[in-house]
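Friendly challenge for the regulars: who can give me the structure tokens for this chain first? No prize, just bragging rights.
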Amino acid sequence: MANGEEKTVLEQIAEKRAARRKALVHEPRARQEEADMAAIDALEESMGTCLHTLDASGYVPGVSVKMAFRPASNAEYKRYVDTIGRSTEKNRAEVVRKSQDQLARSCIVYPEGSSRDAFLDAFPGALVSIALEVARLAELSKEEEGKG
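First reply, four minutes later:
Bragging rights claimed.
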């Protein structure tokens, strides 16, 4: 501190917590993000396409921090819209949630298998986020296709 003042107890605690966060969260998360990006890059090369990604809001040891997905096909998006359109006010919330889950799961390409399950257990709202992004991409694509 300036003028030779000692740090307050709160400042000492804040420094200790910051150091712990760096060691337990920030550094391991950075390593996991590197591994995820390498895997996503390899998938893009093998698939011959560019994937979309979303980042997890937190970090859980041993769990991916990035999820990659492809755009929905016309059939996948149509099924999603049709299913939601057939819902009634009584069952709407359940139908929308199930439709979002189905749309997201059909488009996720990374992580795979048990790693995907671990990601979804750690970040249970991920399917909703991905479904909304997939729908946004599909709607944008459809809007752009009509122009020109």
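The chain is about 65% helix and 5% strand. The first helix runs from residue 9 to 47. Your move, everyone else.
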